Amino acid sequence: MEFDLTWLLLGxxxxxxxxxxxxxxxxxxxxxxxxxxxxxxxxGLNYLLNEQQDQAIDAFIEAVQNxxxxxxxxxxxxxxxxxxxxxxxxxxxxxxxxxxxxLSRSDRERAQHALxxxxxxxxxxxxxxxxxxxxxxxxxxxxxxxALLAIYERSRDWAQASxxxxxxxxxxxxxxxxxxxxxxxxxxxxxLSQGQHDAASRLLDAAIEAAPQAARPRIDRARLYQxxxxxxxxxxxxxxxxxxxxxxxxxxxxxxxxxxxQTGRTDTARQWLEAHYERTASLDVLDALVQLDTxxxxxxxxxxxxVTHLSRERSLVAAxxxxxxxxxxxxxxxxxxQQALEHASKPLTRYRCxxxxxxxxxxxxxxxxxxxWDSYPARRVEEL
Length: 384
What we know:
With 384 residues, the chain is an all-alpha fold. It contains 18 helices and 2 strands.
């Protein structure tokens, strides 16, 4: 049977036409899909720029439905949910990303970090801690450690905070020696409340070694000696304080006076206080000097120091304290006048956080307002 070339000549053009039509149909469909996804995506961006978050979320949901495999759209949607406070929806988006088997390693680490932020914002600290620990050895390690440090400080888990601070210090992520000293001091305080003086002493030694210029470990060390009835060692610890952190002496004037009385070394205490007052006219140091003078009659200017201080600093606090011991011509008017002055000067005796401005009647090593460490100067509000 002979093969008819006519069918071949007719079939080739027909096959070409059918192939061309099929390719045009697929290309048109692909272009339509590519146009639909970016359109929703750019619509969402436009809403974001106009701070219309509800409409932006709707647009991104539409974009994700059109292209469910695009991880960037999921990240954008999850971040939007977190910003709006819809943490459960943000968690679902990021957990869905982590469940995908085709996700790249970098995107998986990014999704893990985003999930940890969701838990942090939601206040789920235990789940946030677990999510952050999974970021060790990733590009998000430094951020994760900072967040873990904040969690441990918030939960007062000082041992864990100390371990994280040590890692960050060793990795050159900053100087955390000061914080490390605070964490060790906090642990020492807990041990002291349980009567474990020897263990607390070892922690204070470690704190001094970690941050030799830090004031708190040396003051806490002096308090420990005072608790143990060792005034000579208390005075020695305060001498070390004057040498390594002299600006903090106003915080320890009470300890200094007690130890000086018990050891009979009031002249030594006076010498340290006078030297500090010459450098910085501190109200606490001034009060301590007045107390020393009143303890030893006719050995010093006594309350006249307050008047002398006024020539150096215009202090309402010093003027009020001087007036409290004076006899006025119209003595019957003295009590209400004194009460008014004390009321007016009381806010001036507070301490103020240099980071957030939070004021308190007592000195804090960590600000109760902004949680900053060492943000309270050893000076009263009037002296700032």
